[in-house]
Write a structure and sequence with these properties.
36 residues
């Protein structure tokens, strides 16, 4: 049971991390456009 919850937690964390990285990427692209 504990292992199942751990796997679900890792999956959720990975999804959040991916979303965060994607958001940072988009923000960086917008900032580079403003500079040029």
């Amino acid at each position: 049971m504990h292992n199942y919850l751990l796997k679900r937690g890792i999956k959720c964390y990975g999804y959040l991390l991916r979303t965060l990285l994607y958001t940072i990427l988009v923000i960086m692209k917008q900032q580079s456009k403003e500079k040029i």
